[in-house]
Specification:
The chain has about 70 residues and is mainly α. It contains two helices and two strands; from the N terminus they run ββαα.
Length: about 70
């Protein structure tokens, strides 16, 4: 038996618990996402530099939001 290095509980598999590993991975991905938000906002402000497909998606999403708001 081994102690999980993440939650510090006993692990019968001689490794860290899989759910502990997944939790750490998700937290890391969330942190990366939070750090990339300003970059994404800058892209949304200057839509001339975006590809046609991305502009179409953004326009579609804003139209859906306006419909939801007026309901």
């Amino acid at each position: 038996m081994k102690i999980c290095s993440i939650c510090h509980k006993i692990s019968a598999t001689e490794q860290d618990h899989l759910d502990c590993i997944q939790k750490i991975r998700i937290e890391f991905e969330d942190e990366n996402f939070k750090q990339s938000i300003p970059e994404k906002l800058e892209l949304a402000k200057d839509s001339q530099n975006l590809g046609v497909e991305v502009r179409a998606i953004l326009e579609h999403l804003t139209k859906e939001n306006k419909k939801d708001d007026s309901s």
